[in-house]
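Morning F.,

Quick status update on the modeling queue. The single chain you submitted on Monday has been processed. Sequence for confirmation:
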Amino acid sequence: MNNQFVGIFGIILAIILVSIPVVYAEIILKGMDYEEGIIPITITNTMGKVEFDGQWSHYDEWKSTTLTELKYNDGKIILRSAHQDGFLYFLIDDLTDFTYNRIADRAMICLDSGDKSGKKPDKSVWCYVAARGSLNGHTLNGGVHTVWMNYLGLVKSHPEYIGVGGTSGVNDRYIITPHAAYEFRIPIEQIGFQDSYGFYMQVVNGDNVKTFPEEFSGEYLRKLPSPSEWTSIISIDKSITKK
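Structure tokens below.
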């Protein structure tokens, strides 16, 4: 195992075993009814315009996506989500991270295509990581028989997976102050085509970590919560599985 791999492995492990000092979060979804805590995801035809550079690159880049506002006691995160042509797309806009910590600032999205009843991540759980200042995202998969790694293992990423972290630019729709932003393109064929997934998000800003769902808050090291305790992301019109 070379030093570069060890460094990457350490970063990924740090994401999993990290303190979460967030007291609460409030979710606000624009323009769509929803069950509390459930994130809807919409189909779009504009994702071909996305420039994966870790920022809102031009005016209408993420405009035709679901807007989810996550309000915390110390700030706010914007989550934009959509799907198109066999991919899930996410933009995480961290409106509170104004400092630049290359690689140490990072975001992770976890998806569970199973029944969410398990207490530990199995092979149906996939986690995708983007680090600030890096164009190379990483992938974790469940089913590893190692408790201290939360049953997740670092695996080779799908060739069409993209996970990029950067700094917002002049076209950001929310605030003009430069801040951390992360963009993801996740191949649905890897996690399985269905209209509902277990969902967990984690955003790291130095030693401050924000998550959704938010109830895994605390001021001590915390493992990745059980998939049975995650929220869900749902295609309301069942367009992910429509032929």
